[in-house]
Design goal:
The complex is a heterodimer.
Chain A (H helix, E strand, L loop, with lengths): L2 H20 L7 H6 L6 H12 L2 H13 L11 H10 L1 H8 L4 H8 L2 H34 L3 H48 L7 H10 L18 H18 L1 H8 L4 H35 L8 H9 L3 H31 L2 H33 L7 H12 L4 H37 L5 H26 L3 H27 L5 H21 L6 H21 L11
Helix pairs in contact in A: 1-9, 1-18, 3-9, 3-12, 3-13, 3-18, 4-13, 4-17, 4-18, 5-11, 5-13, 7-8, 8-9, 8-17, 8-18, 8-19, 8-20, 8-21, 9-13, 9-18, 9-19, 10-13, 10-15, 11-12, 11-20, 11-22, 12-18, 15-16, 17-18, 18-19, 20-21, 20-22, 21-22
Chain B lengths: L12 H26 L1
The chains are: A mainly alpha, B mainly alpha.
């Protein structure tokens, strides 16, 4: 990258740390540090909610998915608007009136200390590890694309974020999230503008989209009802609904965002902002990936987007096989380009027969290119000993660093940093809150002063920042660890939702019922995940919540300590 | 089981309806977009 791009990235990093540290003044008490004294406007909290959800791997992975697979991933978010309405009516007023710092604190008010402790510990383990993965995933990609050392990249992402979160608390997290969201959206529009302007003069945007559509990249809706397919209308609507209810309703990294809002109405407004904006935004990210696909129809496309693997194979013992594959790819890509030009030309002349003929040939040529790329990726997995290798994640960063104009490439890299840092900051902040409120203040050192807990909160933020960076360096060398962390999250999410349903929606559920139900739900999800790995993880949330509810209610009915009514916050 | 209100909140019914209608329109728009460019 050009020095001007590096300057843009450096200015962005400096701006974030400076802006975050400016917020230290409003964070001199625990309430200010953890909840911003419940003073923030709905739009800032809403942007923070969206920035927390949009991690770097979402930005980079989703554009790659648009390139390779098309837009059907957008169905994953179809349950989100309904989930936001349900949460606005239920958890927002419940948590707000209960005057809690963490979602799990409410579980003690309603059930007992052991249910709160278990839920909080599960959150800390799962989020602590996943925070490391959220640092690791973009760090691995950026270290390869930018040619940096991995540890340096991990520190470049993790350290500035830990510093401003540690000193500025939740206010720093929220106000930097607002700016980071602006950088991400600006970067996306810049990328779309570059992609549109880079099309050959004789090919219009509509013709390019027709090519993407005929190659199956614009297929958006799949109404088939199958438990084994992750991205269908129904898995998004039902499985996605449960996932979003769990994520926004029971995960402290999101709950803490709307607890900082000025009032119940402002908290509701912040969630409903996502309900309106999230699906169109995600469609825009995927469309960017589709436009990258259209761009590479007319520009020389690399067979592999990971330059390091490409160089390794070019000089390694499998060099001859790799070069033969590459020659095959170059011929197939040239054939695809030829038929893409002819199909676009046929559309210009509006000749229906010529359009059908050229489109069929183009589609066949694209399938040939895709098949060779698939073989190349399998070849990489086999020869480099990296069975998890996913070329999709390198498509967009490679496009940015090799094809974006000077200055805009820096802006786009800054947008990837922004996506990573906004998610990490929210997670560090919530991990510190759960550590101090649910563990330290409740079990280790009750009765301390506000100032003492504030200091411990800062130290806890720093500790989780260091922990995330260490996990990131370690996780990046172990592909399977990332999968373990993601799987653990899916065991825990739906089950925790089940506990909150018991807490808020029933009068009869008891602490013991909820506690045993939570363990039963997680065990049921683990059993399904290992015995039927073909069932999509989106359905795990439905299974977990259902088992917790049924087991929890059954045990509560026989529990003599049954309470007759839920706590009224 | 929503408990009695201690802080007055505004009526959100219209906003909730607007969310559902917007989602339906967005999904319809995506379907039409996909259909238009896929043939």
């Amino acid at each position: 990258m050009h020095w001007l791009d590096w300057t843009v990235v450096a200015v962005y990093l400096f701006w974030m740390v400076y802006d975050g540290l400016k917020r230290t003044k409003g964070s001199e008490q625990l309430d200010g540090y953890l909840l911003a004294n419940r003073s923030l406007p709905w739009w800032a909290v809403g942007l923070s909610v969206m920035a927390t959800q949009l991690s770097a791997i979402t930005l980079v992975g989703t554009t790659g998915q648009g390139y390779a697979d098309g837009m059907r991933f957008v169905q994953f978010y179809f349950g989100l608007p309904v989930a936001m309405i349900i949460l606005s009516v239920t958890v927002v007023p419940f948590f707000y009136r209960a005057r809690v710092y963490t979602a799990y604190e409410y579980l003690e008010q309603r059930f007992d200390a052991k249910t709160r402790l278990l839920a909080s510990l599960l959150f800390l383990i799962s989020r602590g590890l996943s925070c490391g993965v959220i640092v690791a995933a973009p760090a691995v990609i950026l270290s390869i694309v930018l040619g940096w050392n991995l540890t340096v990249t991990v520190l470049a992402i993790g350290m500035p974020t830990a510093v401003y979160t540690m000193f500025g608390g939740v206010q720093a997290v929220t106000w930097t999230d607002v700016k980071q969201m602006a950088v991400i959206v600006l970067g996306l529009f810049a990328a779309i503008a570059v992609l549109v302007l880079a099309l050959p003069a004789e090919v219009s945007v509509a013709q390019g989209l027709h090519l993407a559509g005929s190659a199956g990249r614009l297929r958006t809706l799949d109404f088939s009802f199958t438990l084994t397919e992750t991205y269908t209308f129904w898995s998004g609507m039902i499985g996605g609904l449960f996932l979003m209810l769990s994520y926004f309703g029971c995960d402290q990294s999101q709950v803490q965002r709307y607890l900082t809002a000025k009032s119940i109405d402002e908290g509701r407004g912040s969630l409903l902002m996502s309900a309106f904006v999230k699906i169109p935004l995600q469609a825009l990210v995927l469309l960017t990936g589709v436009l990258v696909f259209v761009f590479y129809l007319f520009a020389p496309a690399p067979m592999l987007f990971n330059g390091v693997h490409d160089a390794e194979l070019r000089t390694g013992p499998a060099m001859t096989q790799f070069e033969a594959l590459e020659q095959e790819f170059a011929a197939a890509a040239a054939d695809r380009r030829l038929w893409a030009e002819r199909a676009a030309g046929a559309r210009r002349s509006a000749d229906v027969v010529a359009i059908a003929g050229a489109t069929d040939r183009f589609r066949a040529a694209d399938q040939a290119v895709t098949a060779i790329r698939r073989r190349a990726i399998a070849f990489v997995r086999q020869t480099t000993g990296d069975p998890q290798y996913n070329d999709v994640n390198y498509v967009f960063p490679m496009f940015i660093t090799t094809r974006m104009p000077i200055g805009l490439a820096g802006l786009m890299i800054a947008a990837i940093f922004a996506a990573a840092m906004s998610s990490i900051a929210a997670e560090l902040n919530s991990l510190a809150t759960a550590t101090v409120i649910d563990l330290y203040r409740r079990h280790i050192a009750p009765g301390g002063s506000d100032r003492h807990y504030l200091q411990v909160s800062r130290l806890a933020t720093g500790f989780w920042g260091l922990f995330a960076c260490m996990v990131a360096v370690y996780a990046s060398t172990l592909g399977s660890l990332i999968e373990v962390v993601n799987r653990f999250g899916s065991f825990f999410y739906g089950s925790l939702l089940g506990v909150f349903i018991l807490a808020m929606m029933t009068r009869r559920a008891t602490g013991t019922g909820a506690f045993v139900g939570l363990i039963a739900g997680m065990s049921a999800v683990a059993a399904v995940a290992f015995s039927r790995p073909d069932i999509s993880f989106l359905w795990h949330n439905v299974i977990g919540a259902f088992v917790v509810f049924v087991v929890g209610m059954t045990i509560s009915l026989f529990d003599p300590s049954g309470r007759s009514a839920p706590a009224r916050p | 089981m929503i408990t009695e209100n201690s802080e007055p909140t505004r009526n959100w019914t219209l906003t909730f309806c607007a969310v559902i209608v917007t989602e339906a329109l967005v999904i319809l728009g995506l379907w039409l977009f996909s259909r238009h460019f896929s043939y």
